[in-house]
Amino acid sequence: RLLIKDSRGVLVRDLGALPTQSLAAGETRVLTGLNFATGTTYVGNYQVQAELVDGSGNPFAVAVAPFYIVSGTGTGVSASITTDRQVYLPLSTVTISDRIINTSKNVSLDDLTAFTVVYKPDGNVFWSGSSAVGQLVPGALKDLNYRVSLGNAAPGSYRLTLVVRDSQGQERATAETTISVQSTDATGFGLKGSLTATPKPVLQTETITLAAQVSNLG
Predict the structure, then answer these.
(1) Considering only CA atoms, which of 56, 59, 41, 30 is closest in space to residue 4?
(2) How many CB atoms lie within 10 A of CB 28?
(3) Three-state SS for 186?
(4) Residue 184: count of CB within 10 angstroms of its CB
(5) 137-164: b or e for each residue (b if 16 or more CB lie within 10 Å)?
(6) ∠ CA 166-172-173 to the nearest 5 degrees?
(7) Residue 75 confidence (pLDDT)
């Protein structure tokens, strides 16, 4: 009979028993027929316990062999970064959405941190933020959202990056996207004007003074 147990001795899987065998005095035999499919069993130390049992199911000989389940290939983390639009006017607000997914089958991820940066057209940092992701069990995801005011941002193409790092500072996943901030010169956004007439009540043939003012707030 074969039993799979974790490092604390807790039963993970009972693989059952092979059919009854006869073993002659002094005979050595290799028995096969029971398999353990690790599947989504978590990474860690395990042991297989083999028991020779009598006809009543009572063990009279026991042996233990340790083994270790490792994670699959790859980082086990995927990341994406998106925005609510691709093109913005000056003074707009950008909504940034980050998504981090644990793509592994048997590894729980802890102590991840997501770093989000918005770069100006000249390559300098316009805005940055970071958030703790928390624990992600296999297949779980975490969404992070930010609202970034552009203010009077210069026109051009802005690059947005997302980097996910573990507690050791190692990079586990990256993603990036771009947005475009339009110019006042192209859209007229931010141009404001006013017009006043003095005096407002005026008799026929009298002169009205008109004052116009234009401001570029873009």
Answers:
(1) 41
(2) 5
(3) helix
(4) 16
(5) ebeeebebebebebeebebeebebbbbb
(6) 130
(7) 60
Residues ≥6 apart with Cβ < 8 Å to 51 = 1, 2, 3, 59, 61, 62
Cα–Cα distance for residue pair 154/122, rounded to 1 Å: 10
Cα 76 from Cα 109, distance rounded (Å): 9
Bridge partners (DSSP) listed for residue 181: 88, 156
Burial 76-97 (b: 16+ CB within 10 A, else e): bbbbebebeeeebbbebebebe
The beta-strand segments (E) located in 54-190 are: 59-69, 77-83, 87-88, 93-102, 109-119, 125-136, 141-149, 156-165, 171-181
Task: Return the half-sphere exposure (C-beta side, CA atoms, 13 A cut-off) of residue 164.
Answer: 28
What average pLDDT does the chain have?
Answer: 90
pLDDT score of 99 more than 90: yes
Tokens of 16: 């059952």
Spatial distance between the Cα atoms of 167 and 71, rounded to a whole number of angstroms: 18
